[in-house]
Design brief:
By secondary structure, this protein is α+β, with helices and mostly antiparallel strands. Helices cover about 25% and strands about 30% of the residues. Strands 10, 11, 12, 13, 14, 15, 16, 19 and 21 form a 9-stranded antiparallel sheet that branches. It has a 5-stranded parallel sheet with strand order 3-2-1-4-5, with helices on both faces. Strand 10 and strand 11 form a beta hairpin. The protein is globular, with a radius of gyration of 20 Å.
């Protein structure tokens, strides 16, 4: 049995552990909260801070492999563990590039990977020197997650919304659509791509609202997105699972928005809709098994279950029974005891040959299944 650790115990860790049950692997999870979604599914739970050097090093020193479910881990400890022979997915150097938006944007620029024009800022005040660059998106260099750490700056009046810490001011692109591509890379640099997905965001929360796979793209745009996603992963020089998020503008040009060095929300549909899910694929990579089959079994859509506005407290799932009566609909609840507005509490996957059926059921689920609590705010 391979001893493998996961840094972080949220929903991604939970779904990784569900897939791990199919393999000869002894699983370890480190997280501060013993009640986290992944805690009861691993063989060994360790309470600790994933951002602390000593905690991460002590967690990993007796393991054979480590992966992450969130970027905010101590990469210096991972680098030391890698020096001592622990296999790390993704490699610490790749993680160091990706977890800092400034480094990430400079990485794209240095390898001629198309991305939106940008200016590095050290403070909110720096934006005032670049009024002719607006409208733009201000992104916090480090610490942003799930839509936090991103602000749209349209004009001078919006500057107070910006961040008074290092970040990037990124030119706003006239976006036709946003897509994501999941790329799998093994230790010998073999790659395989999942079909791209159309991503639709909640404009107020800046969170993925729903997605449909495969994305509707012309053959030419599909080739571009595949080539660009593969270029990103090739230059990162790391095995693992990578989610490359891309913008497509009105002229069909493709730009990299961001890359996540881990399993990702945009790949959750692969659990039911692909022969090898993103979670199954990562275990294949970690355990040095052949890469899985990324082909779609059927087209799919995902609806994120977010905590309803006005409710904070013990989570309840209103409308769950009605959704479970629907054909070809699969509910994933993340096991978070407490809900709050906008918190990711689960997702629902729909599979169907008919795209209109996917959209119809997506709308019905969004209007039916609500994450609430008895305690209103």
């Amino acid at each position: 049995m391979v001893k493998a650790g996961i840094l972080g115990g949220g929903q991604l860790g939970r779904m990784l552990l569900q897939a791990a049950a199919n393999y000869p692997v002894e699983t370890f999870v480190m997280e501060n909260d013993p009640q986290c979604p992944a805690a009861h599914l691993c063989h060994h739970f360790v309470k600790g801070d994933i951002g602390d050097f000593d905690d991460v090093y002590n967690f990993g020193k007796n393991l054979e492999a480590i992966t992450i479910e969130i970027e905010s881990v101590n990469e210096d400890a991972l680098a030391k563990l890698e020096e001592e022979g622990v296999r790390i997915y993704p490699k610490p150097e790749a993680l160091k590039v990706i977890k800092d938006k400034v480094k990430q944007k400079k990485f794209y620029e240095s390898f001629s990977i198309p991305t939106a024009p940008f200016i590095v800022t050290q403070s909110r005040e720096d934006i005032t020197a670049h009024l002719d660059f607006l409208p733009a998106v201000h992104k916090l260099g480090t610490g942003g997650y799930d839509g936090r750490g991103v602000q749209i700056i349209k004009n001078r009046e919006d500057i107070p919304k910006g961040f008074d810490k290092p970040g990037v001011l990124e030119k706003q692109i006239n976006i036709h659509k946003e897509i994501a591509m999941i790329v799998a890379v093994n230790d010998t640099a073999q790659t395989t791509l999942y079909p791209p997905v159309d991503m639709v965001f909640d404009p107020s929360l800046n969170l993925l609202d729903y997605q449909i796979s495969p994305a509707e793209l012309s053959e030419n745009v599909l080739w571009k997105t595949e080539a660009i996603a593969l270029k990103v992963v090739k230059e990162l020089k790391s095995p693992g699972i990578f989610a490359v998020e891309l913008f497509i503008d009105k002229e069909g040009e493709v730009y990299v928005n961001e890359t996540a060095p881990r399993v990702h929300n945009s790949g959750h549909h692969t659990i039911e809709a692909s022969y090898s899910s993103q979670f199954d694929m990562l275990w294949r990579i970690i355990l040095n098994y052949p890469l899985g089959n990324t082909a779609a079994i059927l087209p799919a859509a995902i609806v994120n279950l977010l905590g309803e506005d006005g409710y904070s407290g013990n989570a309840e799932y209103d409308g769950l029974e009605e959704v479970l009566r629907m054909d070809n609909v699969f509910v994933h609840i993340y096991g978070k005891a407490q809900t709050k507005p906008g918190r990711k509490m689960g997702h629902v996957t729909i599979i169907s040959k008919d795209r209109q059926d996917l959209i119809f059921k997506k709308n019905r689920i969004k209007n039916t299944l609500k994450v609430i609590s008895r305690e209103k705010e």
